[in-house]
Design brief:
Elements: E1 2-3, E2 8-14, H1 25-38, E3 42-46, E4 59-60, E5 63-64, H2 69-89, E6 94-97, H3 109-117, E7 136-141, E8 148-155, H4 173-189, E9 197-201, E10 212-215, E11 223-224, E12 230-233, E13 238-241, H5 254-261, E14 264-269, E15 275-281, E16 284-288, E17 303-310, E18 316-322, H6 323-327, H7 331-340, H8 345-375
Parallel strand pairs: 1-7, 2-3, 3-6, 8-9, 9-14, 14-16
Antiparallel strand pairs: 2-17, 4-5, 7-8, 10-12, 11-12, 13-15, 15-16, 17-18
Helix pairs in contact: 4-5
Bound molecules: fe (ii) ion.
Length: 376
């Protein structure tokens, strides 16, 4: 049972760690330092927890190294273990949802869920009445365990239509119905007052596009859109947009349901690795968080997000903690980042060239020194 302590509860969102069996050490180091310094009461993994569709790409010549479902399952378990073992060592509870990269392979979400459930810190993944194992809610109780004071909605937005190979979509209508029903139950048990909540899902709702506006190519913060136009965040939106939001394809009534239930303090998304901002859409707070992954595209906004919940008010404060804020900015920290992060090819080449040049100079100096000695 999750409980407030001294009226506070801290959630850490880790989105898109998106790695393989051979996890990037600098991401692990960043996450471990974040766990130890920020001390969350709960970690929320908001999808693309592994790079599930590339687990089995390894080949020898033209022959795939992993050929069957059993091999795929073993690779997947290793990738998940490499992420979770550090959370487990610290006895931090965690809740998770899937992203579009997690289950693009032969295992079903339900089969994959068992790898998470094997950890005692796993909370949830029990969405038996919602239609998806990763659509469920996480109640947070008062310190005496008597009352639900806050709630988390974990919603699947990553269902994979294997027939159409469509790998991300809106939250299903049955999940929205489940949310309405469950929200009403919580409200009734709370004396008729909605239980303040955060709603997590991987793929942004399409309404997030209301936070951006068209601009010139040269405008500060401009990113290309899908229609050969350029866009930036509206002035009232706080944060950075490194890419045009990649959303679900259509409105699904979710925003209406949220407004009617009146319990959601913010809807929180991952998915777009370089977006990290907060804004208000139709009276509902939208929050998007950058990725943690070093294996996939990203920027120095790689990091984790914190939500501090206040038991009395039911309100939250959120802060985003980047790689440099967590790990520091020493030369060693920068070299680690360059070495491990995708998108740093030029810097990697410069680093290798610098090391090679340094080694060359040292060798040259040493040879010259030896020659001098021999002449004597
Ligand atoms: Fe994603």
């Amino acid at each position: 049972m999750l409980k407030f302590k001294n009226g506070k509860f801290r959630i850490m969102q880790v989105s898109d760690p998106q790695d393989l069996q051979y996890i990037r050490p600098t991401m692990v180091r960043m996450l471990n330092m974040a766990y130890d310094s920020l001390k969350p009461d709960l970690i929320v993994l908001t999808g693309d927890n592994i790079l599930g569709n590339h687990l089995c790409d390894a080949r020898i010549g033209s022959r795939l190294v992993i050929k069957d479902k059993a091999g795929e399952a073993a690779a997947m378990k290793t990738a998940i273990d490499k992420l979770l073992v550090h959370i487990d060592e610290r006895n931090i509870p965690f809740a998770m949802i899937y992203g579009n990269h997690d289950d693009r392979n032969r295992l079903t979400k339900e089969e994959q869920a068992d790898f998470y459930r094997a950890y005692s810190g796993n909370i949830g993944l029990d969405g038996t009445d919602s239609g998806d194992c990763d659509t469920y809610n996480v109640p947070i109780y008062s310190e005496d365990g008597e009352k639900v004071k806050f709630n988390l909605w974990m919603l699947d937005s990553a269902w994979h239509d294997k027939e159409e190979d469509k790998c991300y979509e809106y939250v299903k209508p049955q999940a929205i119905e489940w949310y309405r029903k469950k929200s009403a139950e919580l409200k009734e048990a709370n004396g008729g007052e909605p239980v303040p909540s955060l709603m997590f899902q991987h793929i942004p709702m399409i309404e997030i596009l209301e936070l951006v506006e068209e601009c010139s190519k040269d405008a500060e913060g401009a990113v290309p859109g899908p229609d050969n136009k350029y866009y930036k965040l509206k002035p009232q939106v706080g944060g950075v947009m490194g890419e045009y939001p990649c959303t679900v394809s259509e409105k699904n009534g979710q925003l209406d349901a949220i407004k009617e239930c009146g319990d959601v303090k913010a809807v929180v998304f991952g998915h777009d690795h370089t977006n990290c901002f907060e804004g208000v859409v139709d009276g509902v707070n939208f929050v998007q968080s950058s990725c943690a992954s070093f294996r996939c595209y990203g920027t120095k906004s790689r990091g984790v997000r914190i939500f501090d919940i206040d038991e009395q008010t039911g309100e939250y404060e959120t802060t985003f903690h980047t790689y440099n804020a967590i790990c520091g900015s020493s030369l060693a920290d920068e070299l680690r980042y360059i070495w491990d992060a995708d998108g740093m090819l030029k810097q990697k080449i410069a680093l290798i060239a610098g090391v090679a040049a340094g080694a060359g100079l040292l060798t040259f100096g040493a040879v010259k020194g030896v020659k001098k000695l021999l002449k004597k």
